[in-house]
Structure of Efflux RND transporter periplasmic adaptor subunit:
Amino acid sequence: MRRPVGAFVIVSAILAAGVVGLALGRSNSPLPGWLDAVLPVVAKQNPAQSEASGPVIYYRDPDGLPSYSPTPKKTSAGKDYLAVRASEDVSFEESPPETKTAKSGDRGKIRYYRNPMGLPDTSPTPKKDSMGMDYLPVYEGEQDDDSSVKVSAGKLQKAGVQIEVAERRTLNTMVRAPGIVQEDERRKAVVSLRFEGFIQSVENVTTGTHVHKGQRLMRIYGPSLSSAAAEYLSALNARPDTGIGNQALKGARRRLENLDAPEAFIAEIERTREIPVYVSWPAPQDGEIVERIAVNGMRAAPGDVLFRIADHDVVWVLIDVAERDLSLIEVGQKASVRLRAYPNRLFTGNVTLIYPHLMAETRTARIRIELPNPDQVLRPDMYADVEIATGAETPVLTVSSSAVIDSGERQIVLVDKGDGRFEPREVKLGRRGGGRVEIKEGLAENDKVVVSANFLIDAESNLKAALSGLDKGEKSQ
């Protein structure tokens, strides 16, 4: 049985290397004759290892340590670094870049090699950096399109790059703010007199009592009111031929009206032709008595507040909205209100007013929301949580918020051009909501944009721009 020649050659090479090392290490005498005859045979069996060709591309540690240098160097023990030529370099690619180019024919000729760590360093020939990493080839055509960058499919897969189509959607931004329930200023009234009077008696109404418009609150005697009533009665009883006429009657009635005499009081004079001693003073509107000052027998001067009445059938909810959200709020928008006293009930109202002044201390704007309160459960000074759904009903062009790279000065998205090419494109943004953002300019419908790991592609784009500038600078010198 014949032994393989290759195995014999390998064993011979190992023995020869050991003997040579031992001989060279102990003396400078010439090699023995038998060893001088063996080495040519080994060299013929493996000429690639015996004859290194090509330029020196770097220097490696003579002891086999992972240390490399682009220039000649010595170790700490004084040993020279070993030169590594192009034919001796180890490549982990399936085939050299030149071979791939020849086979595929679509990447073109290699223009130069760039630093694998992104540093602005290029080389016209293959080389390694200080960590032993191969410089990456840059082919003709890859830098022709200054607006795009090409990323390999393997790198895209490892980085987890995800693509999404820009599409039209309805944006609904939810503005949330705490609020407080307040009385409607237009539904409040006070009861006071326009003349000096004396309260004979107050009806059985107290603070918190609900009263109706026209309901009697108290009985009053007023000397000025009685005098005006007597004048009006005289005008009513005067005969037409006395010359007093209708003008006097109208004047007497106007005086009673100026004293704010109730219509029931004037009607009683016209019906009975008598002057009542006391006036029954009515409630001016429906509502709850929120304050009662009137008591039996008190003297009331003109203008003194005797009762305060508020109607709570409609209440306000006042909220403070951050300045940045003010542009989203419009009068007429629907608002959902949840009271902390009734967390399971939802109340719906409308935005009726955006107050004209901003609060300088908090940088917020006050918003008024009107709520119907038919069952009187909404009480003033209650706390509420308000949500206002903003946004137009017309769909707008949107992308995911993660697709936008915001540098502060400009906003860009990365558009997928196909075949691993991506184009950074500046855009103008609009409203935001639901994890999406409106694109006003820069994109068209159905454009594909990167929504995940886009910062890696952006780094490649910045690197390309730096290398392009470096390349142009070298050409201009």
Notes: Confidence is low (pLDDT under 50) at residues 1-50, 92-105, 472-477. The first helix runs from residue 5 to 26. The first strand starts at residue 56 and ends at 60. The CA atoms of residues 238 and 244 lie 7 Å apart.
